[in-house]
Design goal:
This protein is mainly beta and 128 residues long. The protein contains no helices and 13 strands.
Length: 128
């Protein structure tokens, strides 16, 4: 059974860069045809898909976050990483890594905790 675990700082200052890593066990991030996503949920809001990296290393980003977001991977460690630049208080959220259904043609992910495999989530607060 695949398992995902997020790691990274819980507190980041405004204008700094947030970096989170997802460690995957029970399966390889290079297995065809899976896509590995970063998703967040701000207080009182719904799930927001941020971006994804494919089994082959292709990346996809939410248009609203594209200019500040980068996703990379380390296949030797079976990890993928989110980088979010110039964070602001509105980036405060619970951040999840997940393997959810994703259509690369439409760049739409299926955002439901009932589908796919999800990490437990990590709280990130942006505050000075």
């Amino acid at each position: 059974q695949i398992q995902l675990q997020e790691s990274g700082p819980g507190l980041v200052k405004p204008s700094e860069t947030l970096s989170l890593t997802c460690t995957v066990s029970g399966g390889s991030i290079t297995t065809r045809f899976y896509y590995w996503s970063w998703i967040r949920q701000s207080p009182g809001e719904g799930l927001e898909w941020m971006g994804a990296i494919s089994y082959g290393g292709s990346t996809y980003y939410s248009p609203s976050l594209r200019s500040r977001t980068s996703i990379s991977r380390d296949t030797s460690k079976n990890q993928f990483t989110l980088r979010l630049d110039f964070v602001a208080p509105e980036d405060t959220a619970v951040y999840y890594c997940a393997r959810v259904p994703f259509d690369p043609r439409t760049e739409v992910a299926q955002l439901s905790r009932d589908h796919g495999s999800w990490g437990q989530g990590t709280q990130v607060t942006v505050s000075s």
